[in-house]
Amino acid sequence: MSSHTLELAATPSLRTAASTSKTSLDNAIDEREEDEEVADVASYVRTSSLRPVAPDVTGTGSVASLKLPHTHVLTRDRVRRRSELARHPPLDSPPAVEPEAIELPVIKEYGHPYGKGASSGVRPTDISFQNDVVFSSQRDDVEIAPSFPSSLAPSVLIDEDTDSTAPAITAAQKAVQKRKRMINFMLLCFVIFMNGWNDGTTGPLLPRIQSYYGLGFASVSLIFVFNAVGYVAAAVANVYLTDRFGFGKVMLFGSVLQVAAYAMLFPPGPFPLMCVGFTMIGFGLALQNAHCNGYVASSKENVPTKIGYLHASYGCGALISPLIATQFSKQSHWSYHYLISAGLYALNSVLLWVVFRGRRQDEIKREVDDLSPDQDAIQTNKYKQIFTIRAVHVLALFSLIYVGTEVTIGGWSVTYVQEKRNGNSNAGYISSGFFAGLMLGRLLLMWLNKKIGERRALFLYALLAIQLEVTVWVVPSLIENAVAVAFVGLLLGPMYPILMNHTTKILPRWLLTGCMGYIAGIGQAGSAVLPFLTGLLASRFGITSLQPFIVSMMSTMIVIWAFIPRARMVPV
């Protein structure tokens, strides 16, 4: 009995010892398995490079997918074996805490807009994180991957083909960029509007200036000469000023300079002081004209249309200005017209600072996503690169003849009609009619330029303009001359936008601002040189010489245009 009793008494203690031994064995196996897994993960981290691919971000900012390549995979067998060995936790262990899960929002996206899976119809994978373990709904294996900051996911987009990264742009950001691009373009149109305003002012006021100072045709034409000095000086200095100070500061400097110039012209001082003022005006106009053309020509898209609207704003300014200047030419305080010009340029200066903040062109364009594809290029030795391109000089010569002819018609036609067609002070409205046609031609004839080709269109416009100008020459009718001059403006209008658009096709894009500064500067010099030559001819042969001179200049434009290259002649 005693032995049987001892056997029964020993049974509970033996069972407890056996259970304890089994638990210790399970715990030891658990620790060994955990050590093996930690060693595997550490080995993977040392030997492999983890490159997280950020998710596609839609217009609403939702995350479409997340791809984690090269992750260490625990197979089903290994997970099952571990779960069977460790199903008996220690009695004194705390209750298990469920790990916190981070759920990424998932949207249905069929196709990737950048990668190789575009339009593939593959359903995106549902992914969640639990510490360092990634659970996927499309596979049964459990993946272990080193953790990384979740903030990286929505901020970087990796192209699978090029391995290049770019900021993800939402629909709201695109809308903001589009609005800023429009504001920038509208401001540049206002700057060119003021350019036309200046050029349209001189014609109606020219007879008044001549009578006020008691000058002849040759002497009063000196204002055009000094205007040309400012244009040429700006054309040469533009590249240096742009490299040194940048787009925004140079534009602001040109506008402020014109405010000072018009302030000098407001009180009718000595004629030499007026010549100095016109020199400052020419310098400021040339700087702004060059940068406006260079900025628009280096846009990412719709360059011909933008150039057309840009220079249509010039015609609008040249249309409105003579209407006002004609009224002032009848008053004793005729120079008060320059006070209006000074106020408009003061407004222009404020707008330039508010919008551009003195920044460089690349910085402004990068902010609004308007950089051209080949914007980044070598920026050294610009003067040498520009002046060694033959096409630049041919384009500049055409610009000189064209702008000179345009300003000569708008400026001297008023004097011609007053003396040869018995017109009165209201003849200044003929200048407005010419610039109105100029503006309409740049807007209404864009479709014809695209239909027949810009090169053919310019030949056609020049031939028709010559025929109309001959009628002004030989038909002694005030009404016919006024109508003909307006249609000449309509035909001349598209020529300058065609010239600038063709410039973007045959010249290196990284030199566009410098080249256009040179071309526009020489062109604006033509707006002074040809009117001055007209004054010399008028003082020698009379104002009748105006029409033969204009016809000869239009014929010269046709010849020069024939020598301009059709395609790009230099490497880009």
From TrEMBL:
Membrane-spanning segments: 182-198, 210-234, 246-265, 271-287, 307-324, 336-356, 391-414, 426-445, 457-475, 481-499, 511-533, 545-564
Record's keyword annotation contains Phosphoprotein: no
InterPro entries hit by this protein: MFS, MFS_dom, MFS_trans_sf, MFS_Transporter
Family according to the record: Belongs to the major facilitator superfamily.
Gene3D superfamilies noted in UniProt: MFS general substrate transporter like domains
UniProt name for this protein: MFS general substrate transporter
Listed Polar residues bias regions: 13-26
Major place of residence: membrane
Keyword annotations of the record: Membrane, Transmembrane, Transmembrane helix, Transport
Entries under Pfam families matching the protein: MFS_1 (PF07690)
Domain of life: Eukaryota
Source organism: Lentinus brumalis
GO MF term list: transmembrane transporter activity
Biased amino acid composition, Basic and acidic residues: 75-90
GO cellular component, as recorded: endomembrane system; membrane
Major facilitator superfamily (MFS) profile domain span: 184-568
Positions of the UniProt region annotated as Disordered: 1-46, 75-97
Topology term for the membrane: Multi-pass membrane protein
Location(s), subcellular: Endomembrane system
